[in-house]
Design brief:
about 90 residues, little secondary structure, two-stranded parallel ribbon, 1 helix, 2 strands, about 10% strand
Length: about 90
């Protein structure tokens, strides 16, 4: 039987009177129709409000040569997130 207690992250937030927690998913960065204004807005709001977030699935549009998603050849990385580091404020 798998021990899931090792996958639980605990964070003491008792020093805050209010906490914002914003889960993010489905940005599909790299897709032709990705809405960068929306994704940048969420990221900037999180950074400006010292909010907490978790990055769920489909943050980037990834495909391999035999997959069906259409890749946008002009795609490039616009931001980089490291665990435990705050989001950068996007200009």
């Amino acid at each position: 039987m798998r021990d899931y207690s090792l996958r639980v992250v605990l964070k003491d937030l008792s020093q805050f009177s209010k906490v914002y927690f914003v889960p993010l998913a489905d940005f599909h960065e790299g897709a032709r129709d990705a809405d960068h204004e929306i994704s940048d807005g969420y990221i900037n709001w999180i950074a400006e409000h010292d909010a907490f977030t978790i990055l769920n699935g489909d943050m980037m549009n990834c495909a391999w040569k035999d997959s069906t998603p259409e890749l946008w050849t002009g795609a490039r990385a616009r931001w980089q997130v490291s665990p435990g580091r705050p989001f950068p404020t996007l200009a």
